Design the sequence.
């Protein structure tokens, strides 16, 4: 089994290596499948969304945490405990840490070769 940080690093590496996608829904699915795959393989913790706050497993962004990004047509931000996951209508993805010193962890272009533009 791997630590949460090791698993997060693997998740980011696999997202970087994945082919670019062209829509928000494809990007959301890519994130969910990639994170669930890493967690299934390396966490040793069975998926149980009801215990997401205490079980030590990482879970994908949830639709109830979705917020539109002002001034960015079709761009949606998903808030997690320590990260924002931002997805554009073109499939572009950004994951950034939350806090006073935000750090971009991942910036992935959409299939059209463009980023989020934010």
Sequence:
């Amino acid at each position: 089994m791997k630590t949460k940080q090791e698993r997060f690093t693997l998740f980011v590496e696999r997202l970087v290596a994945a082919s670019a996608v062209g829509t928000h829904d494809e990007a959301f699915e890519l994130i969910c499948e990639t994170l669930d795959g890493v967690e299934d393989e390396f966490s040793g913790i069975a998926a149980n969304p009801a215990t997401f706050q205490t079980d030590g497993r990482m879970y994908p962004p949830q639709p109830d945490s979705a917020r539109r990004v002002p001034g960015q047509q079709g761009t949606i931000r998903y808030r997690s405990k320590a990260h924002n996951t931002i997805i554009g209508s073109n499939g572009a993805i950004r994951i950034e840490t939350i806090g006073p010193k935000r750090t971009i962890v991942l910036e992935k272009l959409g299939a059209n070769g463009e980023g989020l533009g934010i």
The helical segments are 4-17, 24-42.
